[in-house]
Amino acid sequence: MDAETVDLLVIGGGMAGLSAAARVAAEGGTVVLVEKAERTGGSARFAGFVWTAPTFEEMRRVNPDGDPDLAAALVDGFDDGVAWIRSLGVECRPPVPVLGFGRGHQVDTNHYLDACERLLRDRGQEVLTATWTRALLTENGRVTGADCLLPDGSARRIEATWTLLATGGFQGDPELRAAHVHPQAADIALRANPHSRGDGLALGRTAGAAFGGKDAGFYGHLMPAGVSLADPARFVDLALYYSEHALLFDTTGERFVDETLGDHLSTMALLERPEARGLLVADARVHREWISASYVAGIPGVDKFQLCHRAGARAAVADSLEDFASMPEEWGYPGAVIRDRIEEYNAAAGTNDTLTPGRRHDRLPLDEPPFYVVEAAPAITFAFGGLLIDSAGHVLSDATKSPVPGLLAAGADAGGLYRRAYAGGLAPALVFGLAAARTALTETPAAVVG
Ligand SMILES: Cc1cc2nc3c(=O)[nH]c(=O)nc-3n(C[C@H](O)[C@H](O)[C@H](O)COP(=O)(O)OP(=O)(O)OC[C@H]3O[C@@H](n4cnc5c(N)ncnc54)[C@H](O)[C@@H]3O)c2cc1C
């Protein structure tokens, strides 16, 4: 490689890519960061809490089928990641509980992402926005950079000792969602930046990388069915986090999941039900205590039912359970069956003995009228499947399961960490981004034999 070879080429300038690039630059290394969008930041610009499970044991409890080495690396690297964010002058607020088992810090992610980019520019490192990566460069099986297309239409060959894939996953591509998440996932709403469409996965596959985590599930939330999410402000405003305290019925009128385990888990379960839509039913107590209340400490509450209604969602207030029997036919739900199920639930509430599925947490009855009904559908933020990596960020070869020389991946481009469970998206992007930076600063890519 020649004198213009940089230590690290980063493809994708979101949480993982900017973290890796800035860390390498801060340590005196050379970097080029290539971002497809007009602006860096990706989905991380919409996120606010850097969090994960506080211990390896807790991570294994909630995510028993994920890769244990990656789980350990995430938990072990979390504090260093937070310290790194703070080292850039970005506030990480005191720790708060997240999703019942996790712990994390509210962070101004926009401040952090901009601080990373500023650090790169201040150190004379290049940030190329609106730039496409056409192909990885390879030399005897080793990845040596990429061939890119600049916004003016000119080509640029960027040679690098290490190349990091950090394009944020494939959730923006309906066909990849159908192939790797669930056939019905082709039609679900996207609750993430629109640019993460599997480019990292495709580039990695050309270099022989392994894909892991088919059917591993995805992180997302229930959103009002059929409502456009084109305005990113809706990603949070319309998310039906309160489903953990409500009842969720599919189009046959059946409950099918323990709603109390988490909205993100109900979201995955709903994707597998007929037509991937369901009715979320709450009562006046749930409306008071959860629908209009704050979801995580520090975020003010808003009346989500009102917001959904105003956004044009299929939503209604029923004065009594009897009203369910006269649910509009075009909604396509057996209203009388749902009424009966709610009455059965209320009779069994508190005991859990006769409930199927059971309720591990909130077992209070839904018996305080009026009843708030919203039609919900799953929306995806990122899939858990992706390029297989080890804890140092090396991408693993499909053929040998050993590192593909010169190639790294982090963030939602990487798979294997979670299987049908979720413990944070920013934290893995941060921790494995920093791990990739360490690898780029300390290792020489292995020579390829043969
Ligand atoms: C509304 C919302 C709220 C969230 N809240 C939280 C939260 O509070 N806590 C949490 O832990 N997680 C949260 N997340 C998830 C978190 O944002 C992601 O897990 C995290 O940003 C993933 O980091 P990443 O670097 O892999 O992807 P991103 O941050 O999305 O960055 C990927 C980047 O790659 C770019 N890109 C795509 N293709 C190419 C290409 N071919 N070439 C160059 N660049 C490319 C994209 O434009 C983007 O800039 C939230 C997500 C959303 C949408």
Number of strands: 20
Provide the structure class: alpha/beta
Bound molecules: flavin-adenine dinucleotide
Task: Please name the fourth-level CATH homologous superfamily of the largest domain.
Answer: FAD/NAD(P)-binding domain
Short key terms for the protein model shown above:
450 residues; alpha/beta; FAD/NAD(P)-binding domain; Flavocytochrome C3, Chain A, domain 1; 2 domains; 8-stranded mixed beta sheet; 6-stranded mixed beta sheet; 12 helices; 28% helix; 23% strand; elongated; binds flavin-adenine dinucleotide
Please, could you describe this protein's structure?
- By secondary structure, the protein is an alpha/beta fold.
- The chain folds into 2 domains: 6-215 and 384-442, FAD/NAD(P)-binding domain, CATH 3.50.50.60; 220-380, Alpha-Beta Complex (Flavocytochrome C3, Chain A, domain 1), CATH 3.90.700.10.
- It has helices spanning 15-26, 56-62, 68-87, 109-122, 174-180, 199-206, 234-237, 263-271, 284-291, 304-310, 335-348, 426-442, and strands at 6-11, 31-34, 49-52, 96-98, 102-106, 126-128, 132-139, 142-149, 155-165, 189-190, 211-212, 218-224, 247-249, 278-282, 315-318, 371-383, 386-388, 394-396, 403-409, 414-415.
- Strands 1, 2, 6, 7, 8, 9, 18 and 19 form an 8-stranded mixed β-sheet that branches. Strands 10, 12, 13, 14, 15 and 16 form a 6-stranded mixed β-sheet that branches.
- A hairpin with a 5-residue loop joins strand 8 and strand 9.
- Helix 1 (15-26) crosses helix 4, helix 1 runs parallel beside helix 12 (426-442) and helix 3 crosses helix 12 (426-442).
- The radius of gyration is 23 Å and the shape is elongated.
- Flavin-adenine dinucleotide is lined by residues 11-17, 34-37, 40-44, 46-49, 51, 133, 166-168, 191-193, 195-196, 199, 235-236, 381-382, 411-412, 424-427, 429.
